[in-house]
Amino acid sequence: MELLVRLPAVQAHLLRDRLARHGIRVFLLNLHVQGAVGELPPEAALAQVWIDDARDRERARAVLADHEADARRADGVRFCPACGEDNPASFELCWGCGAGL
Ligand SMILES: [Zn+2]
């Protein structure tokens, strides 16, 4: 098991489906804390996508990059490189964690 990325739960589910189509098995953890946003640091409120087999790491990262590029094209959002939160394309700082976009 190896942590691939932290994402909002909706994105984590989409990414899991995409990875499954590439034959990469993952587990989603930390889905239950979504309701606690605001009481936890932003990163703690994100779902975690874990790769079952670390040998899939490079392929999984390529799929993740495709996923993020598609998401940006789809609705003009930018993913925060620090916490994975999506932000309106006009934002220069992440609303979730304040990192530069
Ligand atoms: Zn962020």
Helix-strand layout with pairing:
Elements: E1 2-7, H1 9-21, E2 26-29, E3 47-51, H2 57-75, E4 77-79, E5 86-88
Antiparallel strand pairs: 1-3, 2-3, 4-5
Bound molecules: zinc ion.
Q: In summary, what is this structure?
A:
The chain has helices at 9-21, 57-75, and strands at residues 2-7, 26-29, 47-51, 77-79, 86-88. With 101 residues, it is an alpha+beta fold.
User: In which range does the helix fraction lie?
Assistant: 25-40%
**Strand order, biggest sheet?**
1-3-2
Name the bound molecules: zinc ion
Number of helices, where a helix is a run of at least 4 consecutive DSSP H or I residues: 2
Radius of gyration: 13 Å
Mean pLDDT: 86
The name of the CATH architecture is 2-Layer Sandwich
Number of domains: 1
Q: Return residue spans where pLDDT drops below 50 for at least 5 consecutive residues.
A: none
Q: Under the CATH scheme, which class?
A: Alpha Beta
- β-strand percent reads 15-25%
- The tally of beta strands, per DSSP, is 5
List its salient traits.
single chain; 101 residues; alpha+beta; Alpha-Beta Plaits; two-stranded antiparallel ribbon; globular; binds zinc ion
Task: Explain this structure.
- With 101 residues, the protein is an alpha+beta fold.
- The chain has a single domain (2-75), classed as Alpha-Beta Plaits.
- The protein has helices at residues 9-21, 57-75, and strands spanning 2-7, 26-29, 47-51, 77-79, 86-88.
- Strands 1-3-2 form a 3-stranded antiparallel β-sheet, covered by helices on one side.
- Strand 4 and strand 5 form a beta hairpin.
- The model has no long low-confidence stretch (mean pLDDT 86).
- Residues 80, 82-83, 85, 94, 96-97, 99 line the site of zinc ion (ZN).
- Zinc ion binds at residues 80, 82-83, 85, 94, 96-97, 99.
